[in-house]
Design a protein that fits this description.
Layout lengths: L5 E5 L4 H13 L4 E6 L11 H4 L4 E5 L5 H11 L3 E4 L6 H6 L1 H22 L3 E7 L26 H20 L3 E6 L2 E2 L8 H10 L4 E4 L5 E3 L1 E2 H14 L5 E4 L4 E3 H12 L6 E4 L14 H7 L7 H14 L1 H7 L3 H10 L4
Parallel strand pairs: 1-2, 1-4, 2-3, 4-5, 5-6, 6-11, 7-10, 8-13
Antiparallel strand pairs: 9-12
Helix pairs in contact: 1-8, 3-5, 5-6, 7-9
The structure holds nicotinamide-adenine-dinucleotide and thymidine-5'-diphosphate.
The site of nicotinamide-adenine-dinucleotide (NAD) has 30 residues, from helix 1, helix 5 and strand 5.
Length: about 350
């Protein structure tokens, strides 16, 4: 991609989308960044405070399911590149209420691609997840997800994301839409909503609340610092091949209980806060990405080691307790009570 682009980012008021917006504003200063976000419970508009002061940034509160609204933003902004982060993203919520996941993650993606077809773009990038590959057994550390690992989903969330990926590839093959897809492992870092493991545990530790570990805490996730994910997406936009899928991950597998203990140690609190609660339904055992394609083709690899990234993350949350308090006011209390209140 050359100079002076207009890049439209959906879901830019959420966790990874906002980190991506800041990466663009900081490192691609001649690009115009158009952010489209419906501001669901998972967004916090104050996340974008610094962006809103930047002359290269414009924000639209809009739902990616709303065709008229999305098409009129395209009519006005004529983006060269579109990156679709907007999604319902929490597995536990998808187990309670699958419908909204299918609507936003599948129909919303279709709407975005229809707008791309109508107005023409250089690239539509779909932000995907490694959860589309299902899970790996805990006793086979030699196995990893490759780009050609069969799609085999477990939760309504991962199924909706897999559907979106398949639709994206279908739009490429059927209509010639210039697409790419990234499938990333679990992210952590600033601005993650405290329903996800790491910020939820940090928030609970800071309030001396019990730490609800599902089952024995032995499920394994492959953690990547959010900025590394964002660099990976940028590398795909600038160097990736159209029609391709790229796995992004950090070879950084940890059991959930290890993560919780690291957070407790960093914050100087006792492990007695750990409370084992009933397991998630259909809980995936282990995720582990083979990132060698992105490594070879794009020269991409993670740059933040977990031991540093987790310190940066905890430090960020300590310094942004107002942000956390905004996220945990209102609807969050009800969600927490429903999800964890009677969980034994
Ligand atoms: P998030 O829940 O923090 O943010 C999602 C954002 O999308 C929010 O700002 C929300 O307001 C917005 N949004 C939701 N529905 C919308 C709609 N209908 N129209 C417009 N905006 C809407 O999610 P995240 O963790 O930042 O994830 C971003 C993307 O990355 C998702 O597509 C997710 O599947 C994918 N992903 C996440 C991870 C992870 O570890 N968090 C890993 C791999 C892939
Ligand atoms: P999560 O952050 O929801 O990400 P994902 O399910 O997409 O991997 O959860 C990460 C892991 O942590 C997962 O195995 C479930 C577990 N977990 C808990 O044990 N307790 C919690 O309160 C949460 C939110 C997650």
């Amino acid at each position: 991609m050359g100079e002076k682009k207009t890049i439209l980012v959906t879901g830019g008021a959420g966790f990874i989308g906002s980190n991506f917006v800041y990466l663009l504003l900081d490192e691609r200063k001649d690009w115009k960044v158009v952010c489209v976000d419906a501001l669901t419970y998972a967004a916090n508009i104050h996340t974008l405070n610094r962006a809103l002061e930047n002359k290269n940034f414009v924000f639209y509160k809009e739902d990616i399911r709303n065709r008229d609204g999305i098409f009129s933003i395209f009519e006005k902004e004529r983006p060269d590149v579109v990156v679709n982060f907007a999604a319902e993203s929490h597995v536990d919520r998808s187990i309670e209420n699958p419908g909204i996941f299918l609507e936003t993650n599948i129909i919303g993606t279709q709407t975005m691609m229809d707008a791309c077809r109508k107005y023409g773009v250089e690239r539509f990038h779909q932000v995907g997840t490694d959860e589309v590959y299902g899970d790996l057994p805990l006793d086979r550390p030699d196995l990893f997800f490759h780009e050609d690992t069969p799609i085999h989903t477990s939760s309504p969330y991962s199924t909706s994301k897999a559907s979106a990926d398949l639709l994206t590839l279908a739009y490429h093959r059927t209509y010639g839409l210039p697409v790419t897809i990234s499938r990333c492992s679990n992210n952590y870092g600033p601005y993650q909503f405290p329903e996800k493991l790491i910020p939820l545990m940090i928030n609970n530790v800071l309030h001396d609340k019990p730490l609800p570990v599902y089952g024995k805490g032995l499920k394994v996730r492959d953690w990547l610092y959010v900025k590394d994910h964002c660099y990976g997406i940028l590398a795909i936009l600038e160097k990736g091949r159209v029609g391709e899928v790229y796995n992004l991950g950090g070879h950084n597998e940890k059991a959930n209980i290890e993560i919780v203990k690291i957070i407790l140690k960093e914050l100087g609190k006792s492990e007695s806060l750990i409370t084992h609660v009933s397991d998630r339904k259909g809980h995936d055992q282990r995720y582990a990405i083979d990132p060698s394609k992105a490594n070879k083709e794009l020269g991409w690899g993670p740059t933040t080691m977990f031991k540093d990234g987790i310190k940066l993350t905890i430090d960020w949350y300590l310094k942004h307790q107002d942000w956390m308090a905004e996220c945990t006011s209102g609807e969050y209390t009800k969600y927490y009570e429903e999800m964890y209140g009677n969980r034994k």
